[in-house]
Design brief:
By secondary structure, this protein is of the alpha/beta class. Among the domains are: 75-281, 3-Layer(aba) Sandwich (Rossmann fold), CATH 3.40.50.300; 294-487, P-loop containing nucleotide triphosphate hydrolases (Rossmann fold, 3-Layer(aba) Sandwich), CATH 3.40.50. It is built from 27 helices and 24 strands. Strands 3-4-2-5-6-1-7 form a seven-stranded parallel sheet. A hairpin with a 4-residue loop joins strand 20 and strand 21. Helix 4 (118-132) packs across helix 5 and helix 26 (657-701) packs parallel to helix 27. The chain is elongated, with a radius of gyration of 29 Å. It starts with a helix and ends with a helix. The structure holds adenosine-5'-triphosphate.
Length: 772
C-alpha cells in the first residue's frame, strides 16, 4: 500500500517535471519565433512539407507563424492530443492568422466569415495560457468567455470540453434561465474557465460572495477574456451589462474579440481597454462577405403571400433541414402552431427567447440531430453550428441589417459544407437587396413561381375558428410584426405605411383586421429609436417584442370613442404586448368592412399621451399581497391582462361582438361540411396512394428509377394541378403536444401518409408474391 502510494507520488513528480520542461520549451519557442506585430501570418509561405518541427539544432526553433497544421504550432501535448482526438489537423485561415499572435499573449480583434473556425482560435490560446501558468483548481477563475446567447454559450462549452479533454481545468457554463443559480454560486469560485452570457456573469459578480474580488486578484495575473460575437456583445443591447462587467475586471488581461461582422468602433474598443490589438480580418479582401459555398437567393414575396410561400417551400423540401427566421417570438409561435396543425409531413420545431431554458436547449439539440424545420427568432442567428448541416436558411422576415443577414445565412455552409438560403423581400424592402450587394454578398434575385403557390390563408381562417387560442396567437403575430417594422432603424428598407395591412391580416386567417395605431416618427419632438437602441437586454434572448418601451405605440380604443393608454407599472419583465392583446386590442369588423384603415387612423383619433416606459426590474414597491402570476414560459402577466383573461374582457372590446359570433358560427358550419367532403376525399386519396406505393415497389424491384424530388423548386412540390383543400382533414388529428407533425399518427386518425405497419404489410405481401 505504502509502496504504491510512494510510487504514484514519484510518478506525479516525474510528470510534473516533464510538464515543467515542456512549458519551458514552449515559452522559448514562442518567444524566439514571435511574429512581428501587425504582420499577417497568412501572407507567409507555409512550412516545407517535411521540415522539422519544434526544437532544432543549437536551441533554435521552427517557425510557427505561417504554419498551416496544428502540429506545427507551439502547443502542449495535452492540447495537441485534444485536437487530434477531435480530428482537427489542418488549420483554417482565421486560425493560421490569429493563433501565432494570440499564443504570444497579444490582444486580438479577429474577423472571419461565418463557419470559418473562430471558436478554436480563442479556445486554444485559453487552454495554452492556463496550462503554461500551471493553473490549478485552487487558482479559481483564469478565463472568461462571453457569448451573446445561451445556446451559443452551450456550444462553446462543448468545444472547450472536447479540445480541453486532456487538460485538468474545471470549467462552468453560466447562462441565464437556469434555476440552479444558487448551486452555481457555491462552485463558481472554484472554476477555472467560465463560459457565460453577460447577464448571468454580472449576476454572479453582484451576488456571489468573493467572486469579483477573486476575479480581480486572478485576472491581475493576466488571464484571458474572450468576447465571441464581439460586435453583438458590444452593441447597445448589452451596453450596460458589459460596462458593469468590464468595470470589475482589471486591465492587465489578454482580450480576444471575434466575430464574422467585427466592430471597428474605436469607442467600443476603448471600453475594453485593448492593448495594441492585432487586427486580423482574414476575408477582408475576399470577393464575398459570405462563405463561398453558400448559394444565396432572394425573391419578392408580398406580405400577404409570405405564409403561402413558406408553406409551399416547406412542402417542397420535406427531406431537408430548414432554419426559418421570423422577426419576433409571437410570429414564431403563430407560424409554428399553425403549420403544426396543418401537418406538412416534416417535424417542426420552434426556438425563441421566451421559452424555458431546458426546452430551448432540447430543441437546439434535436434540431442538430434530425431533418426538420426550425422556426426561430434571431436568437439562433449567431454562432450556432448545428451538428448535421442545415440545408436551407429561409428568411421570411427581412433581417434588421446586413450584419444580421450575414449571421443568419451563416448557419448553413459551415466550414467546408455547402448550403442554400432564400430571402423573402416585400416590394417595399427591395433596398435591402442593394445593400447586400454593396456589402459583397452575392445574392441572386429570382422570381417566385406563384403558379405553384399553395395558399394557406383559407386553412388558417378555419384553424382560427376551430382553435380560439390560435386567434390570439394570430392577433399577436399581426401586431408584433407591424410593430417590428415600425421600430426598425433603417427607414430606407422598412416602412410600415407601405404594408397592405388588411391583406396581411387576412393571410393570417384573421376574420377582422386588428387595429393598431402607430405614432408618428417623432413623439413630442423626441425621435423614435431604432430597434437596437431599444434593446437594453442583459442577454440577447430577451427579444424585440419584450424590449420595446411603450412610448413607441398608441393603442386606440375605438369602442370607447377615446384613447386608452397603458399606465401600469408592470412588475417583472412585463410585456406590454399582453396589454395590447388582451385589454386594448380593437378588432375591425371584416364582414362589413367598417372601421378605419391604418392610414386613416390619424384623422380619427385625437392627439394622445405618451405611454409610460415599462419597468424591467422587479418592482420592490409593489403593494404587499399583490401576486405576480407567471405563465407557462415563466413570463409574468400584467394585472390588467389577468383580469382581462378572467373576465374575457377582450371580447367586450370588440366592435361588434354579435357579428363576430355570427361569423364564427357560419364558419363552423362551413367547416363541418368541408370536413365531411374532405374525409371522403382523403379515403380516396389514401387508396390511390397505396396503389401508387405498390406500383413504386414493383418498379423498384424491376430495377427502374423514378424521378426524385426537385430540391431547387422553391414554390411547391405537389404538382400544379393538385388542390390543397385536402389538408383540412387534419384538423381533427392534431396533437398539441407533439413537436412533430404530419408523419405522426394518432390512434384512429387519418394521417397524411400510409402508416409504417401498412407499408410493412404491403412489402411482405409483395415479397411473398415475388417468391411464390
Ligand atoms: N481546423 C479545423 N478543421 C476542421 N474543422 C474545423 C476546424 N476549425 C473549425 N472547424 C469546424 O468548422 C465549423 C465552424 O466552426 P466555428 O463554429 O468555430 O465557426 P465560426 O467562425 O465561429 O462561425 P460563426 O461566425 O457562425 O460563429 C465547426 O463545425 C468546427 O468544428
Amino acid at each position: 500500500m505504502g509502496k504504491s502510494k510512494s510510487k504514484s507520488k514519484q510518478m506525479r513528480k516525474v510528470r510534473h517535471e516533464e510538464e515543467q520542461e515542456e512549458i519551458s520549451k514552449l515559452n522559448r519557442w514562442i518567444d524566439s519565433q514571435k511574429p512581428d506585430s501587425g504582420t499577417n501570418p497568412l501572407s507567409l509561405p507555409p512550412l516545407p512539407k517535411d521540415a522539422p518541427i519544434g526544437i532544432l539544432q543549437d536551441d533554435k526553433f521552427s517557425r510557427y507563424s505561417g504554419a498551416t497544421m496544428f502540429k506545427e504550432l507551439p502547443l502542449s501535448k495535452r492540447t495537441q492530443d485534444g485536437l487530434k482526438r477531435a480530428n482537427f489537423s489542418k488549420m483554417t485561415d482565421i486560425q493560421i492568422a490569429s493563433l501565432p499572435h494570440s499564443l504570444c499573449g497579444r490582444d486580438i480583434l479577429g474577423a472571419a466569415k461565418t463557419g470559418s473556425g473562430k471558436t478554436l482560435a480563442f479556445i486554444i490560446p485559453i487552454l495554452e495560457k492556463l496550462y503554461k501558468e500551471r493553473w490549478g483548481s485552487e487558482d479559481g477563475v483564469g478565463s472568461i468567455i462571453i457569448s451573446p446567447t445561451r445556446e451559443l454559450a452551450g456550444q462553446l462549452f462543448d468545444v472547450l470540453k472536447t479540445v480541453g479533454k486532456f487538460h485538468n481545468f474545471s470549467a462552468g457554463l453560466l447562462i441565464g434561465g437556469r434555476r440552479e443559480v444558487e448551486m452555481e454560486k457555491e462552485h463558481v469560485n472554484a472554476l477555472n474557465i467560465l463560459v457565460c452570457t453577460p447577464g448571468r456573469l454580472l449576476q454572479h459578480m453582484d451576488e456571489t460572495p468573493n467572486f469579483d474580488s477573486d476575479l480581480s486578484a486572478l485576472l491581475a495575473r493576466e488571464q484571458v477574456l474572450v468576447l465571441d460575437e464581439a460586435d453583438r456583445i458590444l452593441d447597445v443591447g448589452f451596453k450596460k451589462t458589459l460596462n458593469a462587467i468590464v468595470a470589475q475586471l482589471p486591465k492587465g488581461r489578454q482580450t480576444l474579440l471575434f466575430s464574422a461582422t467585427q466592430t471597428k468602433s474605436i469607442q467600443d474598443l476603448a471600453r475594453l481597454s485593448l492593448k495594441d490589438p492585432e487586427y486580423i480580418s482574414v476575408h477582408e479582401d475576399a470577393e464575398t462577405a459570405t462563405p463561398n459555398r453558400l448559394q444565396q437567393t432572394a425573391m419578392i414575396v408580398p406580405l400577404e403571400q409570405k405564409l403561402d410561400m413558406l408553406w409551399s417551400f416547406v412542402k417542397a423540401h420535406l427531406n431537408s433541414k430548414i432554419l426559418v427566421f421570423l422577426s419576433s417570438c409571437k410570429q414564431v409561435k403563430f407560424v409554428f402552431e399553425a403549420f403544426k396543425k396543418l401537418r406538412p409531413g416534416i417535424p417542426l420545431k420552434c426556438l425563441h427567447g421566451r421559452m424555458k431554458q431546458e426546452k430551448r436547449m432540447g430543441i437546439y439539440s434535436q434540431f442538430c440531430e434530425s431533418h426538420s424545420v426550425l422556426f426561430s427568432t434571431d436568437v439562433a442567428s449567431r454562432g450556432l453550428d448545428f451538428n448535421k448541416a442545415v440545408d436551407w436558411v429561409v428568411q421570411v422576415d427581412c433581417p434588421d441589417d446586413v450584419a444580421s443577414y450575414i449571421h443568419r445565412v451563416g448557419r448553413t455552409a459551415r466550414y467546408l459544407a455547402g448550403g442554400r438560403s432564400v430571402l423573402f423581400l416585400m416590394p417595399s424592402e427591395m433596398k435591402m437587396l442593394e445593400k447586400l450587394q454593396t456589402a459583397k454578398i452575392p445574392v441572386q434575385f429570382i422570381k417566385a413561381n406563384t403558379k405553384r403557390l399553395q395558399p394557406v390563408s383559407g386553412l388558417l381562417a378555419a384553424l382560427l375558428v376551430k382553435y380560439p387560442d390560435m386567434q390570439q396567437l394570430a392577433q399577436r403575430a399581426f401586431i408584433t410584426y407591424l410593430r417590428s417594422i415600425h421600430i426598425q432603424k433603417d427607414k430606407e428598407v422598412f416602412d410600415v405605411l407601405k404594408l397592405s395591412i388588411e391583406e396581411f391580416s387576412a393571410s393570417l386567417g384573421l376574420p377582422m383586421t386588428p387595429k393598431v395605431r402607430f405614432l408618428n416618427q417623432k413623439i413630442k419632438g423626441k425621435k423614435v429609436f431604432g430597434k437596437s437602441a431599444l434593446l437594453e437586454s442583459e442577454d440577447s434572448e430577451k427579444e424585440n417584442d419584450a424590449e420595446i418601451p411603450s412610448e413607441k405605440l398608441d393603442i386606440v380604443n375605438f369602442k370607447e370613442g377615446s384613447v386608452d393608454r397603458l399606465k401600469e407599472n408592470l412588475e417583472i419583465g412585463d410585456s406590454e404586448e399582453e396589454n395590447l392583446d388582451k385589454g386594448f386590442l380593437q378588432m375591425k369588423d371584416a364582414l362589413n368592412g367598417s372601421g378605419p384603415k391604418i392610414g386613416e387612423i390619424e384623422d380619427l383619433v385625437p392627439a394622445t399621451r405618451v405611454l409610460k416606459k415599462k419597468k424591467l426590474k422587479i418592482n420592490v414597491h409593489r403593494p404587499v399581497g399583490s401576486r405576480v402570476v407567471f405563465d407557462e414560459e415563466g413570463n409574468t402577466l400584467p394585472p390588467l391582462a389577468r383580469v382581462a383573461d378572467r373576465n374575457n374582457v377582450d371580447n367586450s372590446s370588440l366592435l361588434d361582438q354579435d357579428k363576430r359570433e355570427e361569423y364564427y358560427k357560419k364558419m363552423r358550419e362551413q367547416m363541418k361540411h368541408v370536413d365531411k367532403e374532405d374525409k371522403v376525399l382523403d379515403r380516396q386519396r389514401r387508396r390511390e396512394k397505396r396503389i401508387k406505393e405498390k406500383m413504386k415497389r414493383k418498379i423498384g424491384s424491376m430495377g427502374l428509377e423514378e424521378d426524385g424530388e426537385g430540391e431547387d423548386d422553391l414554390s411547391g412540390s405537389e404538382g400544379e394541378g393538385k388542390k390543397y383543400k385536402r389538408s383540412k382533414i387534419y384538423f381533427d388529428s392534431d396533437s398539441d403536444n407533439a413537436d412533430t407533425t404530419g408523419s405522426k399518427d394518432n390512434a384512429g386518425i387519418i394521417t397524411d401518409s400510409i402508416s409504417i405497419a401498412e407499408q410493412e404489410a404491403l412489402a411482405l405481401k409483395l415479397l411473398g408474391s415475388m417468391h411464390s
